[in-house]
Specification:
Structural class: alpha/beta
Strand content: 5-15%
CATH architecture of one domain: Up-down Bundle
Oligomer: single chain
Helix content: 40-55%
Strand order of the largest sheet: 9-8-7-10-11-12-15
CATH class of one domain: Mainly Alpha
Bound molecules: oxaloacetate ion, magnesium ion
Number of helices: 25
Radius of gyration: 24 Å
Shape: globular
Amino acid sequence: MSNKPSLYTYYAGPALLETPLLNKGSAFTKEERIAFNLIGLLPPRYETIEQQMERAYMQYSSFGEPINKHIYLRNIQDKNETLFYRLVQQHLEEMLPIIYTPTVGDACEKFSAIYRSARGIFVSYNEREYIDDILRSVTKSKVKVIVVTDGERVLGLGDQGVGGMGISIGKLSLYTACGGISPAYTLPVTLDVGTNNEKLLNDPVYMGSKHKRITGEEYEQFIDAFMKAVKRRWPEAMVQFEDFAQPNAMPILKRYRDTYCCFNDDIQGTASVTVGSLLAACRSKGVALSSQKVVFVGAGSAGCGIAEQVIQQMVVEGLDEATARSQIYMVDRFGLLTEGMPDLRDFQDALVQKKSAVSDWSYSGDYASLRDVMNCAKPDILIGVSGVPGLFTEAVISAMKKHCELPIIFPLSNPSRQVEATPEQVIKWTEGKVIIATGSPFKPVTYKGKSYPIAQCNNSYIFPGIGLGVIAVKARLISDEMLRAASETLAAASPLANTGQGGLLPPLSDLSGLSKQIAFEVAKIAMAQGLALEISDDELKQRIEKNFWKPEYRSYKRISR
Ligand SMILES: O=C([O-])CC(=O)C(=O)O
Ligand SMILES: [Mg+2]
């Protein structure tokens, strides 16, 4: 039982059992059952949370398929949040891949088919005139973190329409389990703007609006209406944009980042964790990131976002910007982004290679292919954010290996089945001489009798800590410097960089401790930049500790409404 003071509530009887933030199920004491009209509504045994967890874990283990485990856990979450988080915390390594990537991808794809009960809010374009009413219907008066998606690019799985709700829920589960944000302060949101996924449009059980996605001005105005409504209802809430498609992700971020406390997880969160992982990899190699040549496969907003953050880091390390840019090679489906290439997006313009830089390369097509880049640029680092499985072929990896003794290879596309190459393949093709990280979780690989742990370079290392830090000092905006502080903190926690052994990143089971450190450093930068309250380091530490929610039952006292 928590040593926090009692909680006063007027909920009682079945309504109390149906309120997941308050429900304790069989753990209600006899006194509480009498006081709250629960006596007889529960089997007559009084259990501890440990006893409840034992039963839940037994039931969980009886499911074979990950998606069924996911459904089971989500069901507990919708019945009793304290029990859900306690269980997840107890079995974190095992359950993260079930509540989050990769299984959350299946849950998004099958959202309507496996739908059980409501969580979060659906703001539908067709119901836009009620937007304030929708937010008012949320009984949480202090929402502090919102994850919002429009479901157009869910992981590497494309348009999932309202199924995107799965990812908003999954991200927020991690905010609580690993970042200590009380579930009473979180809100998953899906903006239903239609879907272009024919399968969903033709699916009789699909639960979203059955029309093509709205676009252009209609879309922009709708997003704007949502952001303004959020500001009216919860002026201090942090908004995380998640899994928006490329043409919308960057413009939305640009539009709101200077006036709202918000960030885009796929652009900035992924960039922050990748730079942190690259710093750790370079330190373990004994080189500076600024000395490395980096190839990106996938030149969308995520890839370009990471590239820009890598360039910023190289500049911090002392390179001039032009030199830093010359060391970055962006490859997409048409080949290497090169000066003069048609149809470049605005955020790609600054990331093209100069014609003069490739003029003495030999290649056959209009633009250099990935293999050409490997042969001619001789990179040290290869990053995959393409969403296309299998792009890192043996020929590509072998070409890289020819010029680089210890390549750094990050196939980051999610979920597991979208990965550019499996860790097993990469380790085999490089004969184990490689530093590797993936976006989805993979088991350690055994090669020639040696076990290689596979770091999961996933934005989940970053966002819970950012949220915790932002809340601790009520940050008004999220700056690039705050994100870089998160990268540095992650890199500093790398077992491999610090000891020459173990994983490139600390295990995800250490995430709570790491999130507190990230929160501290992020909040300090926010204060230094005048973007937040100003408090002492001691007070900041105390606030982070105090805000860190623990899944423990509190005692209740009944009040009248
Ligand atoms: O959700 C994840 O695992 C990482 C992420 O943001 C994405 O792939 O879109
Ligand atoms: Mg994402």
